[in-house]
Each structure stands twice: as structure tokens, then as C-alpha cells.
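As agreed, record passed on underneath.
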Amino acid sequence: MIPIAFPAPTYRLVVALLAIFLAALLASFPAASAAPPSGNARFDHIKTGFRLTGAHTNARCESCHARGVFKGTPTQCSACHTGAGQRATSLLPANHIPTKQSCNTCHNTTTFSGARFDHTGVAPGSCATCHNGSRSKGKPSGHIPTTAACDTCHKTSAWTPAKFSHASVAAGSCSSCHNGTAARGKHSRHIATTASCDSCHKTTAWTPATFSHSSVAAGTCSTCHNGSTAKGKPSGHVPTTTSCDTCHKTSAWTPATFSHSGVGPGTCSTCHNGSTAKGKPSRHIPTTASCDTCHKTSAWTPATFSHSGVAPGTCSTCHNGSTAKGKPSGHIPTTASCDTCHKTSAWTPATFSHITDAPGH
């Protein structure tokens, strides 16, 4: 190209015309609306009505304000999080829970994970639509085998504790779930048994439990009744090394039977002390003699009593109608002592001396 040489006055005229043309051309473009104010570091974004929180505080202005346009920038999450357009950014993943709700209904700008979800509008029985292990956490590998919907046992307000209806569970199949992994199993201190849980326990209430002693070998009570596995011998029990079933029955713990055949004579109070076993009642005849002096182990009553050591004329000390049988209401009027007429060997027949009786009576 051959350069054109203009005279100096002509050159100056061309330059002036070119400047006027460029000024007019720039004036024809629309001015950027609401350009960011000077001193952007001091700009308060809250005044725009959109607070910058979380990850938005570090985002570049142009990621939201495309081409320097500030006015009219959308504030809805979905307007930017679309994956397309001028403000393309992270968008709804393909495996996201099906929803038409806004992103900020569940998520926040501080952290996208750990989202909260309101299950209020979720249709009953549809839990697995989302809780399938892909879109959301599903049934764990050690879960109880079931085809029932999650909300049959669980609540949306709290995942645990869960309730479970045992109504349709087959008898004897408790350990299918109650194995210590899928559900709580037999504890380490449990009575040694291979029987199914429902042999003793009920699904309505785990305790109290019933136990059939029919197959328990005689003399083996303490195998379970040791105070740890099952209730054992109380601290105030009669001192003995015999097996529980020597005195007690499996059908009823009380009353118990006790054979006194091996008990040493005169040792009754060792047990019959009012604490370990029933002792001498408060109204008993005053005596320091051993129980078996008068009573028999085969039957507590009737009792025999030897009056050999009783002082003459002291009968009423015991025979007062309270401690022992006293003078009956129809007895002959007398102030004489019982042994004046009666004998200790036999109450009847009695002898009566009429010497002191008034004539004519």
C-alpha cells in the first residue's frame, strides 16, 4: 500500500474529523447501568437486598454480574445454578432427590453437604424412592431382613428409636434378628439354654419372663439360681448346703418344706430365731427350754409340756387364758390354785375337797 501524504492543514482536519466520529460512535453505545461505585472494597452488599454468605463471599463479582451489569441480577439459586448461560456454575446432580423446591430450602451457602430436608409432604411408604443408597442413605447391610417401608418402624422426626411389630414373626425365629448384630441378642449372663427367645419372653414385653423347669435336672438349681444369672439364696436364708429343690418347688417358691431329720436336738433356735425362720411368739409360755422339748418337727401343734419342774400353786402364771388355756367361764367358783384339783399328767378327772365347803351349799 502506498501511503498518502496530506498537507499539514489537511492532516489536522482529518484527525479532528476522526476524533469527532469516534466520540459520536461511543456515545451511540448504551452506558453500563448502575456501575459499581468507586472504592469497591468498602461496598456494603447487604444494601442490595442480597447478603453474601458462605462461598458467595469469595466468589468473583463477574461470576454473578455478567458483562459488568449489576442491576437486575437474579437472587434465586436456580437462576445461576443451571449449568448453562452467562452465569453457569455448579448445578443439580443427576442423582439428586426429585424435588421442585428451591435449593436453599435444604442447602445453605456455608456448606452444600449436610442438607436438611422436611419430610412433611412425603407420601407414606415412599421412603425408598430417595433412601435407596444412591440418592440418599439407604438400609444398612446389617438391617433386619424386611420388605416393609422405612416409616413402618422409623419416624422422620428421629430415625431412632424404631418400633417393630412382631405380629407376623414366626414362632421360634427370634434369633433370625436377635443375634446381637441385626438386633439385640442374648446377653452374656443369660441362663444357659438353646430354647428360642419366645419360649420364655413375650414380644409385648421382654420382662417378666416365664421359664418351665420341667426339664431341669434335680439338684441343679444353683446352676442358674446363683444370684447373678437368676435370683439366688437370700442372705437371711436357713444355713444349708442342700439343693434348692430339696425344700422349694418349681411350681411355687413358697411355701417351702423342710426335713428336720438331720437337725441336732436342741438346735431349733439356730434357725427359728424370728429372722431366718419363724421364732417363738410374744405370747409364748415363759421358758428357756429348746423348741423340741415340747414341739415336734412333724407338726408344731399340739405341743407337749412337762410340768415336772413347775412350782405348786403357780399354774395361773401360764394358764391365764392368754399364754395357755385358763379357767373356763363355767368353772366351779374357787380361788384355789389349779393343781389343788387337777393333775399335770391329765386335766381330767379332777379331785375336789369339800372340807372347806359351807354347810348347805
